[in-house]
Amino acid sequence: MSDSAVEPEDVRHVASLARVDLDDEEVDRFVEQFADILDYFETLDEVPEVDSETDLANVMRDDEVRDSLDQDEALRNAPESEEGFFKGPKVS
């Protein structure tokens, strides 16, 4: 475990915000994991900055205005459609 100051109350607070019930064993495990995550962020702070490339140019093509498909063409390859709309499986 690291020297980062992560308290069980912090873990319980985050769990309550996420509406997750944790038992004491889970809280202890997450205290260690949160501390490790904070250590990883501290390690990232040690990475030196890289000079940015100032001679970059836009390599993307210009937008072209074109006619879109009409409704019949858009639905032509749809496995199912209903009343002019794509029809998909119900999500429960």
UniProtKB/TrEMBL annotation:
Gene3D superfamilies: Glu-tRNAGln amidotransferase C subunit, N-terminal domain. Its EC number is 6.3.5.-. Residues 52-92 are annotated as: Disordered. It is an enzyme of class 6 (ligase). GO terms for biological process: glutaminyl-tRNAGln biosynthesis via transamidation; regulation of translational fidelity; translation. GO terms for molecular function: asparaginyl-tRNA synthase (glutamine-hydrolyzing) activity; ATP binding; glutaminyl-tRNA synthase (glutamine-hydrolyzing) activity; transferase activity. Keywords: ATP-binding, Ligase, Nucleotide-binding, Protein biosynthesis, Transferase. It catalyses: L-aspartyl-tRNA(Asn) + L-glutamine + ATP + H2O = L-asparaginyl-tRNA(Asn) + L-glutamate + ADP + phosphate + 2 H(+); L-glutamyl-tRNA(Gln) + L-glutamine + ATP + H2O = L-glutaminyl-tRNA(Gln) + L-glutamate + ADP + phosphate + H(+). InterPro entries: Asp/Glu-ADT_sf_sub_c, GatC. Residues 60-75 have a biased composition (Basic and acidic residues). NCBIfam families: gatC. Allows the formation of correctly charged Asn-tRNA(Asn) or Gln-tRNA(Gln) through the transamidation of misacylated Asp-tRNA(Asn) or Glu-tRNA(Gln) in organisms which lack either or both of asparaginyl-tRNA or glutaminyl-tRNA synthetases. The reaction takes place in the presence of glutamine and ATP through an activated phospho-Asp-tRNA(Asn) or phospho-Glu-tRNA(Gln). Belongs to the GatC family. Heterotrimer of A, B and C subunits. This is Aspartyl/glutamyl-tRNA(Asn/Gln) amidotransferase subunit C. It comes from Halorientalis pallida. The gene is gatC.
